[in-house]
Amino acid sequence: MAHSDLYAKKRTTAEKAVSIIKSGDWVDYGWCLGHPVATDKALAARAKELSDVKVRGGISLWMPEICAVPNPKKHFTWNAWHCSGIDRRIIDMGCGYYGPMRYSELPRFYRESIGPIDVAMFQVAPMDEHGYFNFGPQASHMMAVCEQARVIIVEVNQNMPRCLGGIEEAIHISQVDFIVEGDNPPLAQLNSAPLTEVDKKVAELIVEEIPNGACLQLGIGGMPNAVGRLIAESDLKDLGVHTEMYVDAFVDMSLQGKINGSRKSIDRFRQVFAFAAGTRKMYDFLHNNPEIMSCPVDYCNDVRKVAVIDNFISINNAVEIDLFGQVSSESAGTRHISGTGGQLDFVMGAYVSNGGKSFICLSSTCIRDGEVKSRIVPTLASGSIVTDSRTCVQWVVTEFGKVNLKGKSTWERTEALISIAHPDFREELIRQAQHMKIWRNSHRI
């Protein structure tokens, strides 16, 4: 049967497509920009007749309609693989939970641990001439989702960029059960916050450590983006990209001619990523761009892949770091913030890379409960999740300096970390370190 005939046969309304979902089902919404819109709205409209429908998603950029119905937890449970501010709100509402993971393992979770999914429904780019619906900028774990789904509903959005790559970045119409033509909503945009002087100072300290020909991974947040913007204005050249999340800073660097991937050990001349979220400028840059390589996350975040790329530079944010060198990047006490994501994979992979370096960056202080608090603390707050163990952490950077923790004993780590803490908190950190018997009293910072 011709692709056009098959398309016509499978095309239906959002209401008819979601009518197959019943109480107790597991439903998968995909990831980030790929979360459904029309079918989500249609499912929410059925809330009164449904209970215990369990939905998986992650990095929500808008509130799902199923979580906006009256008493949503009576009908739906939201399960987020990684949390945005929206996902945190859903958790606070009492109808959402986080699924702990190293992001690189997510495809394997679906294939080996999770088991069958009753329905998968998500947004895709329009079908191409070969009958493929591109997943857009979120190849991530989508093929694994589709392999486990009993029913697949694709929601076509004309605004979804077609991201090339050739590795699990699209699904064929023969594998799809229902096609819904949505209202083509504009893609949600994730705008970068204005850079602060602290962001700029941290970025300057990191950029001077980056050699020509380095391969970059940037995490989400102001500081990694600040590094990207500073690189775009620098004299660096022949840079490569192999990252979990593609952000606007990579576009800025590309347009300034800093990125060409010519020195990459693998995937030369290609910018490799698992998912993307940013501005319209970025989505336009990604669309049909042969330089872009959209890949599943078990390829992008594989420590073994990262390790073979020379001069790999990993740059990520943190919430807190304690004097032992333990990094928490996903919670503040028991208050969940984001997730492990790919940070640990890239911290480990970058260190193994020939010439590679991993950077954990954070401002020295934050405002919490109306008070200025140090982000460098004696021990992590009770309940805080350790994202990077003390044995894995390499460079730590604040606006007051940068230190390499590799090869340092507990007292050396303590001295190094206190040296980049805010001066107002150093004396108290020394007192706490003395109490914990990790201060040598060799000198005052």
Question: Could you walk me through the main structural features you see in this protein, from its secondary elements to its overall organization?
Answer:
- Keywords: Fatty acid metabolism, Lipid metabolism, Transferase.
- It comes from Syntrophotalea carbinolica (strain DSM 2380 / NBRC 103641 / GraBd1) (Pelobacter carbinolicus).
- Coenzyme A-transferase that converts butyryl-CoA to butyrate.
- Pfam families: AcetylCoA_hyd_C, AcetylCoA_hydro.
- Its EC number is 2.8.3.-.
- The chain is α/β, with parallel strands linked by helices.
- It folds into 2 domains: 179 residues, Glutaconate Coenzyme A-transferase, CATH 3.40.1080; 239 residues, Glutaconate Coenzyme A-transferase, CATH 3.40.1080.
- Helices cover 28% and strands 23% of the residues.
- The chain is built from 15 helices and 25 strands.
- The strands form 6 sheets. The protein has an 8-stranded parallel beta sheet. It has an 8-stranded mixed beta sheet with strand order 14-13-12-11-15-20-24-25, sandwiched between helices. Strands 17-16-23 form a 3-stranded mixed beta sheet, with no helix packed on it.
- Strand 16 and strand 17 form a beta hairpin.
- It is globular, with a radius of gyration of 23 Å.
- The mean pLDDT is 95.
